[in-house]
Fold this sequence. Notes:
The structure is a homotetramer.
Chain A: E1 2-8, E2 13-16, E3 21-24, H1 29-35, E4 42-50, H2 57-69, E5 74-78, H3 84-95, E6 100-104, H4 117-130, E7 139-142, E8 147-150
Parallel strand pairs in A: 1-4, 1-5, 5-6
Antiparallel strand pairs in A: 2-3, 7-8
Amino acid sequence: MIRIFVTGGTFDKEYNELTGALAFKETHLPEMLRLGRSRVDASITTLMMIDSLEMTDADRALIVGHCRQAAEARILITHGTDTMVDTARALAAECGRTKTVVLTGAMIPYAFGSSDGLFNLGSALSFVQALPPGEWDKVRKNRETGVFEAI
Amino acid sequence: MIRIFVTGGTFDKEYNELTGALAFKETHLPEMLRLGRSRVDASITTLMMIDSLEMTDADRALIVGHCRQAAEARILITHGTDTMVDTARALAAECGRTKTVVLTGAMIPYAFGSSDGLFNLGSALSFVQALPPGEWDKVRKNRETGVFEAI
Amino acid sequence: MIRIFVTGGTFDKEYNELTGALAFKETHLPEMLRLGRSRVDASITTLMMIDSLEMTDADRALIVGHCRQAAEARILITHGTDTMVDTARALAAECGRTKTVVLTGAMIPYAFGSSDGLFNLGSALSFVQALPPGEWDKVRKNRETGVFEAI
Amino acid sequence: MIRIFVTGGTFDKEYNELTGALAFKETHLPEMLRLGRSRVDASITTLMMIDSLEMTDADRALIVGHCRQAAEARILITHGTDTMVDTARALAAECGRTKTVVLTGAMIPYAFGSSDGLFNLGSALSFVQALPPGEWDKVRKNRETGVFEAI
């Protein structure tokens, strides 16, 4: 069984038509898993709904705590891409050797139709099932190109 | 023949995946007319690409000037909804008796998939063909509900 | 007030994922009007859900009967494009002089995302409000190009 | 490096608006990988574009031959779901021990917007990278429910 922790990020942003701004409401994860006809046994917990640029050390501690306490050994976290690597570092120190934790996100909100979110979610769900605990520190986000690069 | 003036508005906003902000690039009007399989003889001119909350008196004077000078007697303007009524007032004073001018917009960007833009564009293109010059001052936008109301 | 009669057509076709075939379920009209944020006072009645190539004289008589008996003087009919002109002829003979009846359809199902249906529905709703009873026999569908032509 | 073989299936079906039927044109794989912002080093070869219910023994032999001759040890095949298990059996006998071959498909065409194809493609690309050669005969498609079941 897989535990999914939702933290927000571009993945789950929506357009608020009254204010004209981007905002968070509920997570789209259940809808996305249904659309993907996923048969994986997964339970979803929303820990926070924030832009990862606004994620604090306390937020990261909360995420790490939930990962440590989770009964599942395979954990998927949806996360904004901007500070995803920072959260990976925090997780690696605390539960990276005993659990397979995969972070995933999107460059375009799922709600905007042409999202990479569905693709990434399918990809992440496979990796979290197939990979052992392991590397986390071989990547960085290049914010100018919008691409994760190997380091 | 119909003249279409593009001024921006939610209609044409896009998501910039590098900055995570909403922004304008090119207008989607040609793509929308193609998608709607429109056979109407229309020519499109982009006057500006701005949020209507940022529209100045000079911008409105520019729009009015183009409407006055246009050879066509039927004019469609895409426009942000927030100050659409203000532009209608400026137009009414200058060319509202001789030309049929229809303003249209959207609450959700066309690029976000579930937009009202396609519906509104089809609607506006019909009205601009079928209606005579006429009323413009019987409506206001209720920004709390996001709905235009008769006054 | 506007009466909308649904008869099916490409407009409302869906993909049945179990059989892999196109089929009709419920009409998408209410969802489309909601998406278009339509404030028009309209009531929807589904008369049939069929491909217009399969429409019989009895089906057309049923449509004509409902148009004649409708309390509304403005009627919108969703209809497959292939025999739309035939139904227009039947309607013209029976109620074309007293009521404004507009037929609309789509080349691509609304459910398939890139549909012309939303655009056409917005367009038809405007025309049915703005136009008097009138011409119906100046058009034919060219099935090789998929385009309606003036005749 | 990953080799992707395209064989058609629901995945790649499109709506032909002139005939009103479902049909194959070009594969959507390159567009889907671009939309998913995939950075995986993959080369795509279209072997056929057919419904898997019409796949013959000769077609399967062709697929098996390409898998055997491929320089890559990791191969992804897009395939109609109805006879996917039959092709898996043919592949297992010929190259199932030396190469990781993953078959994927969709219940709804990618072109129809709400497809499971993007999710499945992301999932399959991850599994083909992460899994060793292995089991193929533990699943069947239940055509009444549209779901693959473990056997």
